[in-house]
From TrEMBL:
Protein name: Argininosuccinate synthase
Domain Arginosuccinate synthase C-terminal: 175-393
Annotated signal sequence range: none
Reaction equation(s) it catalyzes: L-citrulline + L-aspartate + ATP = 2-(N(omega)-L-arginino)succinate + AMP + diphosphate + H(+)
Protein source organism: Ruoffia tabacinasalis
Segments forming domain Arginosuccinate synthase-like N-terminal: 5-166
Length: 400
C-alpha cells in the first residue's frame, strides 16, 4: 500500500528545513518539497540537495517570477496599492501565486495535504490557506507551528542541530527574511522591538544604507503603456526585467527602505524592515503619470478603492469577487496612462525631472494666467457665488 503524500511549501530557511524531519517523525507520508521561484536569488541545485538530504522524497521548483511580475505586481502598481498607506505588499502579492503552484503540484502528485511553515502569529498562514482554498477547498492543511512543541526560533535552531539539518540562521542573526522579485523583508531578533535602533548597513541586502549611496544624482526615465512599465531609459524590457533593472538602480540610491510598525491580520502589531527599491520607484513614476492623465474624480475613486484593495490583498483575499471587481475598475482607468516619466534619484529621494504623455490633461493655455478659448475669468464669480451660498446661510443663522 502506497504512502500518503504531503506537499511542503519549502524555502530552505530555518522553519521549513526543520519541518521535513518533523513531518517524517509525525506522519507516515512521503514529503514532497516545493520551492517556488518568485525571483529570490538562490542556488537551486543546492536547495534541492538540502531538501532531499533532509528527508524529502521529491523536489519541485516552478520558476514563475515572470508571472509574479506581470499578473500580480504590475496590477498592484497600476492600482497604487499601499497597505495602511505605506507597505507595498511585497510578501502578500507573492503568496497567492505560491499557493496556486502548491495546489498544482499536490494535484499532480495526488497528495492528501499541503504543509506550510508559517507561525501561528503571522499573516502568511492566512494568505496560504485562503489561496489554497480558492483552488481546492477540500485540501487538508498541516501547520506545524500551530501544533508542535517548538515555541521560538531559538528552539528551532536547537531542533535543527539535533536533527543535523544545516541552516544559515544563528542566535546572533536570527532574522526571518522573505525575498522575491519585488522585495526582501526582515523580521525577528532585535528588529522586533520598536525601541531598538538597527544598523541598516548590516541588514539590507539589495538596498544601500543612505550613508553608502552615491554622492551624485542619477536620472532615470520610465516608459508606460496603459499603466504598465515597458521600458527603462529607452530600453524595452519585460515586466520582470523592469523590476530587476529598477531594483539595481533604485537600490543603489537607497530608495525603498521601510522600517515600519504594521497591524497584522491576526490582530497584533509587529515591526518589520522592508526593502522594495524597484517597485517604490515604479509606483512613484506611475502615480506622477496618473496625475497628468487621469481626471480628479478618477484619481479620487482610485485612492478610495486602493485602500480597500490593499487590505483585501494583505488579508489573503487576492482570489475573491471583491478583488476581481476592483481590479476590473483599476484596469479600465489605465487606458490613458501612457507616457514617459523622468525622476532624479539622490540619497533616498525621487525628484521630478520631466513628464509627458499624448493623453495629458494639462493644457498650457487653460492653466496659464492668460486668456484662452475655454475659460472666461468672469465665470469664476458665478461659481464662487454658488459654492459660498451654504456658508452665507450658516453665518446668517449664527452657526459660524
Amino acid at each position: 500500500m502506497s504512502k500518503d503524500k504531503i506537499v511542503l511549501a519549502y524555502s530552505g530557511g530555518l522553519d521549513t528545513s526543520i519541518t521535513i524531519p518533523w513531518l517524517k517523525e509525525n506522519y507516515d507520508a512521503d514529503i514532497i518539497a516545493v520551492c517556488v521561484d518568485v525571483g529570490q536569488k538562490e542556488d537551486w541545485e543546492a536547495v534541492e540537495k538540502k531538501a532531499i538530504a533532509s528527508g524529502a522524497s521529491k523536489f519541485y521548483n516552478p520558476h514563475v517570477a515572470d508571472v509574479l511580475a506581470e499578473e500580480y505586481i504590475y496590477p498592484a502598481i497600476s492600482s497604487n496599492l499601499k497597505y495602511q498607506g505605506t507597505y507595498l505588499l511585497g510578501t502578500a502579492l507573492a503568496r497567492p501565486l505560491i499557493a496556486k503552484e502548491l495546489v498544482a503540484v499536490a494535484h499532480k502528485e495526488g497528495a492528501t495535504a499541503i504543509c506550510h511553515g508559517c507561525t501561528g502569529k503571522g499573516n502568511d498562514q492566512v494568505r496560504f490557506e485562503t489561496g489554497i482554498a480558492a483552488f481546492d477547498p477540500e485540501m487538508k492543511i498541516v501547520a506545524p507551528w500551530r501544533i508542535w512543541d517548538i515555541k521560538s526560533r531559538e528552539d528551532a535552531l536547537k531542533y535543527a542541530e539535533l536533527k543535523g539539518v544545516p541552516v544559515t540562521s544563528t542566535i546572533e542573526k536570527i532574522y526571518s527574511e522573505d525575498e522575491n522579485l519585488m522585495h526582501i523583508s526582515h523580521e525577528g531578533g532585535d528588529i522586533e522591538s520598536p525601541k531598538n535602533a538597527v544598523d541598516y548597513s548590516s541588514i539590507l541586502n539589495i538596498t544601500n544604507a543612505l550613508e553608502n549611496t552615491p554622492d551624485e544624482a542619477e536620472i532615470v526615465e520610465i516608459t508606460f503603456e496603459q499603466g504598465k512599465a515597458t521600458a527603462v531609459n529607452g530600453e524595452e524590457l519585460k515586466p520582470h526585467e523592469v523590476l530587476e533593472t529598477l531594483n539595481a538602480i533604485a537600490g543603489k540610491h537607497g530608495i525603498g527602505v521601510l522600517d515600519w510598525i504594521e497591524d497584522r491580520t491576526i490582530g497584533m502589531k509587529s515591526r518589520g524592515i522592508y526593502e522594495t527599491p524597484g517597485a517604490t520607484l515604479l509606483m512613484e513614476a506611475h502615480e506622477r503619470l496618473e496625475s497628468l492623465t487621469l481626471t480628479k474624480e478618477t484619481i479620487k475613486l482610485k485612492q478610495h478603492l486602493a485602500v480597500e484593495f490593499a487590505e483585501l490583498i494583505y488579508n489573503g483575499q487576492w482570489y475573491s469577487m471583491a478583488s476581481d471587481s476592483i481590479l476590473a475598475f483599476m484596469n479600465h482607468t489605465q487606458k490613458t496612462v501612457t507616457g514617459d516619466v523622468k525622476l532624479k534619484l539622490y540619497k533616498g529621494n525621487m525628484l521630478p525631472h520631466g513628464l509627458k504623455s499624448e493623453f495629458a490633461l494639462f493644457d498650457e493655455d487653460v492653466s496659464g494666467f492668460g486668456e484662452d478659448d475655454l475659460f472666461d475669468h468672469h465665470d469664476a464669480e458665478g461659481y464662487i457665488n454658488v459654492i459660498t451660498l451654504p456658508t452665507k446661510i450658516q453665518k446668517k443663522l449664527g452657526l459660524l
